[in-house]
């Protein structure tokens, strides 16, 4: 990775035809959730391992510096930014003014497209009506709250600190602040969760009135506290059949409420309610990821930053790119990635992307009821509901 972050000329070839987005990573959390393996840090984890450099107090300025670096690297790229997504961690541990400064740097250096989507994630306990109003005034128009569950015993297993009912209240507060789009994140398959618990969580989420719901199966990652608890036999592990049942419940309840799936784990009340930033990822467009551990992709070049906030701050303070490494994707790798990602979308992927073995597998998936016949006849592989349950297996067969 060059110290100045320079990209090969091929990366910007044809850039004007691709959307450009920004992801801003905020790596701070008040506490660590037992299931989480994201690149995040609590205050106690940073103490003595980054000190002042890793402080939340000066973090916004570090991100601003990387945005300025992006401007230098991308040169005279004329594209305004179409989506901005602030994730974490818990972005709302920073002052709303700090998030506004980070967004302001993107506006100043690149310009924001008309109708830009600007999202931040938020912990329900880290915001109040005044904070949300300040975010909206700063230019944020979409917000995603981590609800996970409406049941206290499920939240306890996940080590979530908010109380049941608080995420739903946050939706009302965000609407009152003027947010156009509100998402609630849910997790299913937590040890000890029942079908009734999951239905209650879905009903509570819908009752709050969001226009977007994300529902993810719990993945037990090695090295997490939850993985250790399961290994010690303290809590049970759910299986794939349970996950499938919960997914079907989600589809049943969400579709009955007027939500339509547009990606395997995401539902929206209308096309306008979709998360355009995530669609940018799934369609292989360009995005710059700023922050410790953030990943970027521009024109077939993918790179990632150093993970520790202290190392990130030091690199920028010395005028160096915080990039830790990068790879140039081959045409074959990009073809495979298109299948992996686009097949998860309601529009599916073009059958012309498939090699002969993949085309044979697609015909078999159609016969098995995993692909929808109508779009297949138009040259696209689109998952049926049963296909969504087996999406990973279908993808493996099609990229063969």
TrEMBL record:
Residue span(s) of domain Radical SAM core = 14-260
Pfam family name, one: Radical_SAM
- The UniProt gene name for this protein comes to hemW
Q: What is this protein called?
A: Heme chaperone HemW
Its family? Answer: Belongs to the anaerobic coproporphyrinogen-III oxidase family. HemW subfamily.
The answer to whether keyword Membrane applies is: no
InterPro entries for the chain: Aldolase_TIM (IPR013785), Coproporphyrinogen-III_oxidase (IPR034505), Elp3/MiaA/NifB-like_rSAM (IPR006638), HemW-like (IPR004559), rSAM (IPR007197), rSAM_sf (IPR058240)
Q: Which PANTHER family match?
A: COPROPORPHYRINIGEN III OXIDASE, RADICAL S-ADENOSYL METHIONINE DOMAIN-CONTAINING PROTEIN 1, MITOCHONDRIAL
> Record's SUPFAM superfamilies?
Radical SAM enzymes
What subcellular locations does the record give? Cytoplasm
């Amino acid at each position: 990775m060059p110290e100045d972050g320079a990209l090969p000329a091929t990366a910007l070839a044809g850039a004007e035809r691709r959307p450009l987005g920004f992801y801003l990573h905020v790596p701070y959390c008040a506490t660590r959730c037992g299931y989480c393996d994201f690149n995040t840090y609590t205050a106690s984890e940073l103490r003595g391992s980054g000190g002042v450099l890793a402080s939340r107090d000066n973090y916004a300025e570090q991100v601003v510096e990387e945005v300025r670096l992006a401007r230098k690297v991308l040169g005279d790229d004329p594209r305004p930014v179409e989506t901005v997504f602030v994730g974490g961690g818990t972005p709302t541990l920073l002052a709303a003014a700090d998030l506004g400064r980070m967004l302001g740097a993107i506006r100043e250096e690149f310009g924001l497209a008309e109708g830009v989507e600007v999202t931040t994630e938020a912990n329900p306990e880290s915001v109040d009506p005044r904070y949300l109003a300040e975010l909206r005034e700063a230019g944020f128009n979409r917000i995603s709250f981590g609800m996970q569950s409406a049941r206290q015993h499920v939240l306890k297993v996940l080590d979530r600190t908010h109380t049941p009912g608080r995420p739903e209240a946050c939706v009302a507060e965000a609407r009152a602040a003027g947010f156009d789009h509100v998402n609630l994140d849910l997790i299913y398959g937590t040890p000890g969760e029942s079908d009734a618990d999951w239905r209650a969580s879905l009903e509570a989420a819908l009752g709050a009135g969001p226009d977007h719901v994300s529902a993810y199966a719990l993945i037990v990652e090695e090295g997490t506290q939850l993985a250790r608890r399961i290994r010690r036999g303290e809590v049970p592990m759910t299986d794939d059949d349970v996950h499938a049942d919960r997914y079907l419940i989600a589809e049943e309840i969400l579709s009955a409420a007027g939500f339509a799936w547009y990606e395997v784990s995401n539902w929206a009340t209308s096309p306008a309610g979709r998360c355009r930033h995530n669609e940018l990822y799934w369609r292989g467009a360009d995005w710059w990821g700023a922050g410790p551990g953030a990943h970027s992709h521009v024109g077939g070049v993918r790179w990632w930053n150093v993970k520790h906030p202290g190392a990130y701050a030091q690199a920028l303070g010395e005028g160096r790119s915080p990039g830790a490494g990068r790879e140039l994707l081959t045409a074959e790798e990009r073809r495979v990635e298109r299948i992996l990602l686009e097949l998860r979308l309601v529009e599916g992927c073009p059958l012309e992307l498939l090699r002969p073995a993949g085309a044979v597998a697609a015909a078999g998936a159609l016969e098995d009821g995993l692909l929808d016949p109508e779009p297949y006849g138009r040259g696209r592989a689109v998952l049926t509901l049963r296909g969504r349950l087996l999406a990973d297996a279908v993808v493996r067969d099609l990229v063969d």
